[in-house]
Amino acid sequence: MSTPVIEKGKDGFYHPSTEEQITALVKKASQENLEIRCRGAAHSLARAIYTDPGPGEPPLPNEVSEQKPPLGPNLNIMFDQYAKLVWIDQQAGIIEVEAGIHLGYDPEDPTGTSTLENSLLYQIFTKGFTLSDLGGISHQTVSGFLMTGSSGGSLWYGIEENIIGLCIIDGNGEAEWFTNEQDEFGAVVLSLGLLGIVSKIRLKLEPNYFIYGQQITYPTTQPACPIDLFGPGTADKPSLENYLLKTPYSRILWWPQEKVERVVIWEATRGAAMPVFDPAPYEEFADNNFLSNVEQLGASMLFTMLGNSKFGVVWQKLKPSFAEFRHLTELSCGSGFFARLFAAIITFILQVIGFLLTLFLMTFPAILHALYAPVVDVLQPLTKNGKGQLFMDYTYSSLPMDNGANDVLMGTEFTEIWIPLADTQRAMQLLDKMFKEGKFKATGYYSTELYAGKQNSCWLSPAYERNVFRIDFFWFSTNEGNPAARDGFFSQFWDRLKAEQIPFRLHWAKFLPEYEYGQWAAYFRSQYPRWDDFMALRQKRDPKNIFLNDYWSLHLFGTKKDALPGLPADITGS
């Protein structure tokens, strides 16, 4: 007897609780020629996550943290009711998890079901286990993290080492297990939702280890900087490539702007899990929740003013930040009338101050720009000798070093460029030249993130069969314009790297070029040795294109989905 199709929720999502219900939804999509896709924590761009909207319906803004699906008949799934963890062999550390389990706590979960206690990392921590590596945040679902090829900053460890198998449902509604001993495992484990819907994942865990590290901020100039950022290294200073090779976990925030010129170096190593342990967590902002939120609200105001030209636009864009600050203040003060009253009063006071300050600085932009460097110096001061931030903590808490950054107050979007590790010096010299010549047009007002990634065997991974140097060009989400457009902020880096023949691949869940789609599809194809194998498998597993939307069709094939039947077998660009 077939499983009946569950009803769509009031939020526009289907919320299955069993594999059979997921299969029924896939069969419905196939029979009715509809698209079907799944969301995790919505940390990818919206159009990379969801289906296309229905005929005549508006497209979603192509932004991260878009919590609502598009309107129309297509099927969008949320896995909040499909997030169990089962121990297959507790002694050996082998588990099976359903696709919707979050790695850590997701504070922006619209259903409110995500907690620290029901997260994957916390549940395995209590049994003495952890994962080999984690990204900068742990809000994601485990399936979303894998399907998009997300990765932590390490050349020593990779989460792919923990994956031993996964079950995925194809376009005909058939569930099939793949293990890491099969060739096609390299395709399905990072497949962007295009080869089917992941149902379950089996993981081989590592025994718990603790994280010990430091964060230090140095000028980029020599001799002050402990890393030779742009050269081959010296007897007493490693090149950036060698630093990344020798450091178990690392992340560098580069502020290249004139009169700022500094790097924030976060580095960590593993240590034994001591029987008596008093953790000292990493603190990205102030060590007090209220002060941390004030600091992030101030940063939101600064970057929003710098990224826009009109006061009215700035103030409108800041409203969600003040609303989020009020919400966070209520949470930090506990529930009840007085907590809500205090949050309302303090938010109102800050809004009045913010309104006057914003009006003044937007009226006199020269003052705003003159204040930029001193303000960054306050927010990210240089480290005095012996005064770096030291931390020691549980893996789940401090290895994702950006968990303390609020997604609304510090709304950050970026393109993530993965370059062969051997080209690190060439890439850094090129960026240094671009930043010095282009000034704020090239540097922007935000930092640039530098880190590494370990090679793996996933066919569409930007780290497929090579270690990589990764560059994230940050874009504050309230900035004017589309950074991925032909004249957008990111295009200067994509085009220049391509012109200089420095090969690169892009993180699929972050911004991709939104121009010259055919040429970029051809370029992507040239960078992945098993591209054609993946596309052949996609056609086999999704014959009706129910998992494919226009976004992925444009970026992978250079054309919208409705033009695919006439697509030449050999894409040469347009």
TrEMBL record:
Q: Name one Pfam family in it.
A: ALO
Keyword Oxidoreductase set for record: yes
Query: Which portions of the sequence form the region Disordered?
Result: 49-71
FAD-binding PCMH-type domain sequence ranges = 6-208
Write down the species. Mucilaginibacter psychrotolerans
Record protein name field: FAD-binding PCMH-type domain-containing protein
Q: Which Gene Ontology cellular-component terms appear in the entry?
A: membrane
TM ranges are 337-362
